[in-house]
Amino acid sequence: MYKVVLVDDENRITRGLSHIIAWEKLNCTVVGTAYNGETGLRLVEDTQPDIVITDINMPYMNGLEMIEVLKARSSPIKFIILSGYNDFQYAQKGIRLGIKNFILKPVNEQELEESIQLITFEIENERLNRELLLQSQLQNQKKATISEQGLIHHIKNYIELHYMENISLNSIAEHFFINPSYLSQLFKKKTKDTFLNYLTDVRIEKSKKLLLETDLKVYEISDRVGYKDAKYFSKIFEKKTLIKPSDYKSGQV
Protein backbone atom coordinates (compact mmCIF):
# COMPACT_ATOMS: atom_id res chain seq x y z
CA MET A 1 0.00 0.00 0.00
CA TYR A 2 1.17 3.52 -0.82
CA LYS A 3 1.10 5.90 2.15
CA VAL A 4 -0.62 9.26 1.65
CA VAL A 5 -0.55 12.43 3.75
CA LEU A 6 -3.18 15.17 3.31
CA VAL A 7 -2.22 18.79 4.10
CA ASP A 8 -4.88 21.53 3.94
CA ASP A 9 -5.95 24.23 6.37
CA GLU A 10 -9.61 23.52 5.58
CA ASN A 11 -10.70 20.64 7.78
CA ARG A 12 -13.68 19.87 5.56
CA ILE A 13 -11.35 19.22 2.61
CA THR A 14 -9.02 16.82 4.40
CA ARG A 15 -12.02 15.09 6.00
CA GLY A 16 -13.82 14.95 2.66
CA LEU A 17 -10.82 13.57 0.77
CA SER A 18 -10.31 10.94 3.46
CA HIS A 19 -13.82 9.61 2.82
CA ILE A 20 -14.77 10.24 -0.83
CA ILE A 21 -11.62 8.83 -2.48
CA ALA A 22 -11.53 5.05 -2.90
CA TRP A 23 -8.08 4.79 -1.36
CA GLU A 24 -8.05 1.02 -1.03
CA LYS A 25 -8.96 0.60 -4.70
CA LEU A 26 -5.98 2.83 -5.53
CA ASN A 27 -3.75 0.65 -3.32
CA CYS A 28 -3.28 3.64 -0.98
CA THR A 29 -3.93 4.46 2.65
CA VAL A 30 -4.14 7.88 4.34
CA VAL A 31 -1.64 7.82 7.20
CA GLY A 32 -2.31 11.32 8.51
CA THR A 33 -3.63 14.83 7.95
CA ALA A 34 -2.12 18.23 8.75
CA TYR A 35 -3.44 21.78 8.57
CA ASN A 36 -0.33 23.81 7.61
CA GLY A 37 3.13 23.28 6.19
CA GLU A 38 4.88 23.17 9.56
CA THR A 39 2.75 20.37 10.98
CA GLY A 40 2.84 18.77 7.53
CA LEU A 41 6.64 18.57 7.72
CA ARG A 42 6.53 16.91 11.13
CA LEU A 43 3.88 14.48 9.95
CA VAL A 44 5.94 13.59 6.87
CA GLU A 45 8.99 12.93 9.07
CA ASP A 46 6.92 10.67 11.32
CA THR A 47 5.07 8.71 8.64
CA GLN A 48 7.46 8.71 5.63
CA PRO A 49 4.65 8.78 3.02
CA ASP A 50 4.94 8.05 -0.68
CA ILE A 51 2.50 10.80 -1.71
CA VAL A 52 1.63 14.19 -0.20
CA ILE A 53 -1.52 15.98 -1.35
CA THR A 54 -1.28 19.60 -0.25
CA ASP A 55 -2.99 22.95 -0.53
CA ILE A 56 -0.88 26.00 -1.41
CA ASN A 57 -2.28 28.83 0.74
CA MET A 58 -1.95 27.87 4.41
CA PRO A 59 -0.87 29.73 7.58
CA TYR A 60 2.65 29.55 9.11
CA MET A 61 4.12 27.72 6.12
CA ASN A 62 2.42 27.30 2.75
CA GLY A 63 2.42 24.13 0.72
CA LEU A 64 5.18 25.19 -1.67
CA GLU A 65 7.49 26.17 1.18
CA MET A 66 6.91 22.76 2.73
CA ILE A 67 7.68 21.06 -0.59
CA GLU A 68 10.81 23.18 -1.02
CA VAL A 69 12.12 22.01 2.37
CA LEU A 70 11.42 18.36 1.52
CA LYS A 71 13.02 18.69 -1.92
CA ALA A 72 16.13 20.17 -0.29
CA ARG A 73 16.33 16.99 1.79
CA SER A 74 16.27 14.92 -1.43
CA SER A 75 12.96 13.43 -0.42
CA PRO A 76 11.55 10.91 -2.97
CA ILE A 77 7.95 11.89 -2.10
CA LYS A 78 5.54 12.62 -4.95
CA PHE A 79 3.29 15.67 -4.60
CA ILE A 80 -0.16 16.66 -5.77
CA ILE A 81 -0.99 20.35 -5.34
CA LEU A 82 -4.54 21.53 -4.73
CA SER A 83 -4.79 25.09 -6.05
CA GLY A 84 -7.42 27.77 -6.51
CA TYR A 85 -7.91 29.96 -9.59
CA ASN A 86 -5.93 32.77 -7.92
CA ASP A 87 -2.87 30.62 -7.26
CA PHE A 88 -1.31 30.88 -10.73
CA GLN A 89 1.91 32.56 -9.53
CA TYR A 90 2.31 29.82 -6.91
CA ALA A 91 1.65 27.17 -9.54
CA GLN A 92 4.56 28.54 -11.57
CA LYS A 93 6.86 28.05 -8.57
CA GLY A 94 5.48 24.54 -8.16
CA ILE A 95 6.44 23.75 -11.73
CA ARG A 96 9.97 25.02 -11.04
CA LEU A 97 10.07 22.62 -8.09
CA GLY A 98 9.28 19.77 -10.46
CA ILE A 99 5.62 19.35 -9.50
CA LYS A 100 3.60 17.92 -12.39
CA ASN A 101 0.29 17.27 -10.67
CA PHE A 102 -2.08 20.21 -10.04
CA ILE A 103 -5.74 19.81 -9.14
CA LEU A 104 -8.03 22.85 -9.18
CA LYS A 105 -10.41 23.39 -6.30
CA PRO A 106 -13.15 22.38 -5.86
CA VAL A 107 -11.55 18.98 -6.20
CA ASN A 108 -12.96 16.69 -8.85
CA GLU A 109 -12.93 13.16 -7.42
CA GLN A 110 -12.24 11.42 -10.73
CA GLU A 111 -9.44 13.83 -11.67
CA LEU A 112 -7.72 13.32 -8.32
CA GLU A 113 -8.02 9.53 -8.53
CA GLU A 114 -6.53 9.56 -12.05
CA SER A 115 -3.68 11.74 -10.80
CA ILE A 116 -3.03 9.35 -7.90
CA GLN A 117 -3.05 6.38 -10.29
CA LEU A 118 -0.45 8.08 -12.50
CA ILE A 119 1.75 8.79 -9.49
CA THR A 120 1.54 5.25 -8.11
CA PHE A 121 2.41 3.93 -11.58
CA GLU A 122 5.41 6.29 -11.64
CA ILE A 123 6.53 5.18 -8.17
CA GLU A 124 6.23 1.52 -9.17
CA ASN A 125 8.31 2.13 -12.30
CA GLU A 126 11.00 3.91 -10.29
CA ARG A 127 11.13 1.07 -7.77
CA LEU A 128 11.36 -1.48 -10.56
CA ASN A 129 14.14 0.48 -12.26
CA ARG A 130 16.07 0.69 -8.98
CA GLU A 131 15.64 -3.06 -8.50
CA LEU A 132 16.83 -3.78 -12.04
CA LEU A 133 19.78 -1.43 -11.59
CA LEU A 134 20.71 -3.11 -8.31
CA GLN A 135 20.48 -6.57 -9.89
CA SER A 136 22.60 -5.35 -12.83
CA GLN A 137 25.26 -3.97 -10.40
CA LEU A 138 25.26 -7.26 -8.45
CA GLN A 139 25.57 -9.29 -11.66
CA ASN A 140 28.47 -7.11 -12.82
CA GLN A 141 30.17 -7.54 -9.44
CA LYS A 142 29.69 -11.31 -9.67
CA LYS A 143 31.13 -11.35 -13.20
CA ALA A 144 34.09 -9.26 -12.04
CA THR A 145 34.69 -11.63 -9.12
CA ILE A 146 34.55 -14.67 -11.40
CA SER A 147 36.89 -12.93 -13.83
CA GLU A 148 39.36 -12.10 -11.05
CA GLN A 149 39.26 -15.66 -9.72
CA GLY A 150 39.86 -16.97 -13.23
CA LEU A 151 42.86 -14.67 -13.64
CA ILE A 152 44.42 -15.85 -10.37
CA HIS A 153 43.82 -19.47 -11.42
CA HIS A 154 45.68 -18.86 -14.70
CA ILE A 155 48.52 -17.10 -12.89
CA LYS A 156 48.92 -20.01 -10.46
CA ASN A 157 49.03 -22.42 -13.40
CA TYR A 158 51.63 -20.22 -15.08
CA ILE A 159 53.79 -20.27 -11.93
CA GLU A 160 53.43 -24.07 -11.76
CA LEU A 161 54.79 -24.36 -15.31
CA HIS A 162 57.47 -21.66 -15.15
CA TYR A 163 58.69 -21.59 -11.53
CA MET A 164 62.15 -22.73 -12.69
CA GLU A 165 62.50 -19.63 -14.89
CA ASN A 166 63.46 -16.09 -13.92
CA ILE A 167 59.87 -14.99 -13.40
CA SER A 168 58.71 -12.03 -11.32
CA LEU A 169 55.60 -10.03 -10.53
CA ASN A 170 56.45 -7.64 -13.36
CA SER A 171 57.12 -10.34 -15.95
CA ILE A 172 53.85 -12.14 -15.14
CA ALA A 173 51.91 -8.86 -15.18
CA GLU A 174 53.37 -8.16 -18.61
CA HIS A 175 52.50 -11.67 -19.78
CA PHE A 176 48.85 -11.22 -18.74
CA PHE A 177 48.66 -7.57 -19.91
CA ILE A 178 47.81 -6.16 -16.49
CA ASN A 179 49.27 -3.53 -14.19
CA PRO A 180 51.87 -4.97 -11.71
CA SER A 181 50.41 -2.97 -8.82
CA TYR A 182 46.91 -4.23 -9.61
CA LEU A 183 48.22 -7.82 -9.85
CA SER A 184 49.96 -7.51 -6.49
CA GLN A 185 46.79 -6.24 -4.78
CA LEU A 186 44.51 -8.74 -6.51
CA PHE A 187 46.79 -11.70 -5.71
CA LYS A 188 46.87 -10.75 -2.03
CA LYS A 189 43.08 -10.21 -2.01
CA LYS A 190 42.27 -13.59 -3.57
CA THR A 191 44.97 -15.83 -2.05
CA LYS A 192 45.63 -14.08 1.30
CA ASP A 193 49.32 -14.33 0.35
CA THR A 194 51.83 -12.16 -1.48
CA PHE A 195 52.94 -13.10 -4.97
CA LEU A 196 56.59 -13.45 -3.93
CA ASN A 197 55.81 -15.64 -0.93
CA TYR A 198 53.56 -17.88 -3.04
CA LEU A 199 56.25 -18.25 -5.72
CA THR A 200 58.85 -19.01 -3.03
CA ASP A 201 56.62 -21.68 -1.46
CA VAL A 202 56.13 -23.35 -4.83
CA ARG A 203 59.88 -23.39 -5.48
CA ILE A 204 60.70 -24.74 -2.02
CA GLU A 205 58.11 -27.55 -2.34
CA LYS A 206 59.57 -28.51 -5.75
CA SER A 207 63.10 -28.48 -4.29
CA LYS A 208 62.03 -30.77 -1.42
CA LYS A 209 60.83 -33.35 -3.92
CA LEU A 210 64.10 -33.15 -5.89
CA LEU A 211 66.20 -33.37 -2.71
CA LEU A 212 64.44 -36.57 -1.63
CA GLU A 213 63.90 -38.28 -4.98
CA THR A 214 67.02 -37.47 -7.02
CA ASP A 215 70.82 -37.60 -6.72
CA LEU A 216 71.15 -34.00 -7.86
CA LYS A 217 73.49 -31.73 -5.94
CA VAL A 218 72.04 -28.83 -3.94
CA TYR A 219 73.41 -26.27 -6.41
CA GLU A 220 71.85 -28.22 -9.31
CA ILE A 221 68.47 -28.31 -7.54
CA SER A 222 68.79 -24.61 -6.78
CA ASP A 223 69.17 -23.91 -10.48
CA ARG A 224 66.27 -26.21 -11.38
CA VAL A 225 63.82 -24.40 -9.12
CA GLY A 226 64.73 -20.91 -10.32
CA TYR A 227 67.56 -19.84 -8.02
CA LYS A 228 70.86 -19.14 -9.81
CA ASP A 229 72.61 -18.42 -6.52
CA ALA A 230 72.88 -21.67 -4.52
CA LYS A 231 73.82 -19.84 -1.30
CA TYR A 232 70.74 -17.66 -1.55
CA PHE A 233 68.62 -20.77 -2.25
CA SER A 234 70.01 -22.47 0.86
CA LYS A 235 69.27 -19.39 2.94
CA ILE A 236 65.64 -19.23 1.72
CA PHE A 237 65.22 -23.01 2.13
CA GLU A 238 66.43 -22.91 5.74
CA LYS A 239 64.25 -19.90 6.51
CA LYS A 240 61.16 -21.73 5.22
CA THR A 241 61.88 -25.21 6.59
CA LEU A 242 64.21 -24.50 9.54
CA ILE A 243 66.72 -26.99 8.10
CA LYS A 244 69.55 -26.81 5.55
CA PRO A 245 68.95 -28.39 2.10
CA SER A 246 71.86 -30.78 2.59
CA ASP A 247 70.45 -32.00 5.92
CA TYR A 248 67.01 -32.37 4.40
CA LYS A 249 68.51 -34.45 1.59
CA SER A 250 70.37 -36.73 3.99
CA GLY A 251 67.21 -37.35 5.96
CA GLN A 252 68.04 -35.26 9.03
CA VAL A 253 64.54 -33.84 9.21
Structure report:
With 253 residues, the protein is an alpha/beta fold. Among the domains are: 2-107, Rossmann fold (3-Layer(aba) Sandwich), CATH 3.40.50.2300; 197-249, Homeodomain-like (Arc Repressor Mutant, subunit A), CATH 1.10.10. The protein contains eleven helices and five strands. The chain has a five-stranded parallel β-sheet, sandwiched between helices. The longest helix has 54 residues, at 109-162. It is rod-shaped and about 105 Å long.
In brief:
By secondary structure, this protein is of the alpha/beta class. It is 62% helix and 11% strand. It is rod-shaped, with a radius of gyration of 36 Å.
CATH class of the domain at 2-107: Alpha Beta
How many H/I helices?
11
- Secondary structure class reads alpha/beta
Q: What is the helix/strand order?
A: EHEHEHEHEHHHHHHH
| CATH homology superfamily name of the domain at 2-107 | Response regulator
Largest sheet: number of strands, sense, barrel closure: 5 strands, parallel
Low-confidence stretches: none
Query: From the 3D coordinates, which CATH architecture of the domain at 2-107 would you assign?
Result: 3-Layer(aba) Sandwich
Strand content range: 5-15%
Radius of gyration: 36 Å
Features of the shown structure:
11 helices; 253 residues; single chain; 62% helix; Arc Repressor Mutant, subunit A; five-stranded parallel sheet; alpha/beta; rod-shaped; Rossmann fold; 5 strands
List the helices and strands and how they pair.
Elements: E1 2-7, H1 11-20, E2 28-34, H2 37-47, E3 51-55, H3 63-72, E4 78-83, H4 88-96, E5 102-104, H5 109-162, H6 169-175, H7 180-191, H8 195-213, H9 218-224, H10 230-241, H11 245-249
Parallel strand pairs: 1-2, 1-3, 3-4, 4-5
Helix pairs in contact: 2-3, 9-10
